[in-house]
Amino acid sequence: MQNQGTNIFRLVTLLADSALLLVLFVVIGYWRFDDLRIANPEYYNYYLQLLVLTVVSWFAAGRWSGIFSYTSGLEQRNVTANVLRAALAQFAILAIIVVGLKGYYYSRLFLATYFMLLYGLAWLYRLLLVHYLRRQMARGKWQRTYVLAGTHATAEALAKLTELRPELGWSYKGTFDGKTKAVDEVICAHAPGTSAYQAAANFALNEGMRFRFLPDMGPKYAGQMFLENLEGIPLFSQRREPLSNWTNAFIKRIFDVLVSLVLLIAVGLWLFPVLAILLSLTGAGWPLFSQRREGLSGKTFTVLKFKSMNGEGESNFLQRWMRKTGLDELPQLFNVLLGQMSMVGPRPHTAGDGAIYAASVASYKIRYWAKPGLTGLAQARGLRGGGTAARPEMLEERIRADVYYIEHWSLVLDLRIVIETAVRTLFAPATLHSK
């Protein structure tokens, strides 16, 4: 669904990015090297090659990530995710090319300054542009007008949505009555193959209007169905699943490997031996504990933990503190590194707890669509704890958070959850547990 705001966004971003790419390169080049054409003509040619590669890779990565597209409902968080995806994709492209060309002659200071400013400014002006476009459309500018042919629950939901949120860029002009109206589109709620559907389609064709079909999904699913196409046959999915895209899954896996390696080296090398020794000295015995848990697609695997209670279910002061802060879960970094878990995702449960939870919350098994995580959205929100004594309303909140994460995954969301979990663990461990 496009309106004039879409064209403005595309034009401004294409022109502004072109200017940013070129002006920043020249300005930072003069700041770092003065005039390379005089100081070192050979390096000047190398940097010209880099400029061409940078421009081509940025527009290629940008088209893939959607940073030049404005869609209805685009918000600042979407802009942030799109720019981050474009930056990562361009970085991967340039890294491969520069390494292949043995580009040791490029200044690290130049590269760091240039790309930090490029990504930062491209992100910032897009936030401002989206804010401006939404404000203008909320005032009634650049609206696409439409009439509804027929009615059902979903059609009523669409009319109400566009009336309440004019910033989406759509304006409802009433029902279709078979007469000419100064609108851009006819949206048909009649079933295909009926005479009413054909009449609305013919009218739109004769008047040069765009015609769209709106199926009746009921009020419960309005806004939650997503169209897929199988050899021309439309299929509707109830939920989005970003991680079913192999590119997203690959990006998430790279994130998992990098973060788990950094934590194992920076924290695990000294903290793991310290905790193991303290557990032994306080009478816990062998410090590690393993347990079978449910993972991706409900398949079981073995998780590692520091022992936080004995066989009778009792804990000493150290074990209670470790369980309160979540430090007993840290050995699961090895599970992340092995690919059995992710840094962020629904927490893995035992098969017994999983069966109980699934009987209580209908959407529980949606959690099996993603790898279990060392932490998750529920944990970042303080919704920790469980077992057979878990309160039904709190259990439902945790499952809802897990399902939301699966439907709305992004690398930015993963980063936010990891940071929030770290902050809670270090500065406010009591907030990790909901009352």
Short recap of the structure:
The chain has 435 residues and is an alpha/beta fold.
Jot down its keywords.
single chain, 435 residues, alpha/beta, Rossmann fold, four-stranded parallel beta sheet, two-stranded antiparallel sheet, 11% strand
User: Which strands sit side by side, in order, in the main sheet?
Assistant: 2-1-3-4
Strand percentage lies at 5-15%
Shape: flat
pLDDT averaged over residues: 85
Layout of strands and helices, then pairs:
Elements: H1 4-33, H2 36-39, H3 41-65, H4 76-100, H5 108-138, E1 144-149, H6 153-164, E2 170-175, E3 185-188, H7 195-207, E4 210-213, H8 218-221, E5 226-230, E6 233-237, H9 246-281, E7 288-294, E8 300-306, H10 317-325, H11 333-337, E9 342-344, H12 351-360, E10 373-375, H13 377-380, H14 392-407, H15 411-427
Parallel strand pairs: 1-2, 1-3, 3-4, 9-10
Antiparallel strand pairs: 5-6, 7-8
Structure characterization notes:
This protein is of the alpha/beta class and 435 residues long. It has three domains: 135 residues, no CATH class; 95 residues, Rossmann fold (3-Layer(aba) Sandwich), CATH 3.40.50; 187 residues, no CATH class. Helix content is 55%, strand content 11%. The protein has 15 helices and ten strands. The protein has a four-stranded parallel sheet with strand order 2-1-3-4, with helices on both faces. Helix 4 runs antiparallel to helix 5. It is flat, with a radius of gyration of 27 Å. The model has no long low-confidence stretch (mean pLDDT 85).
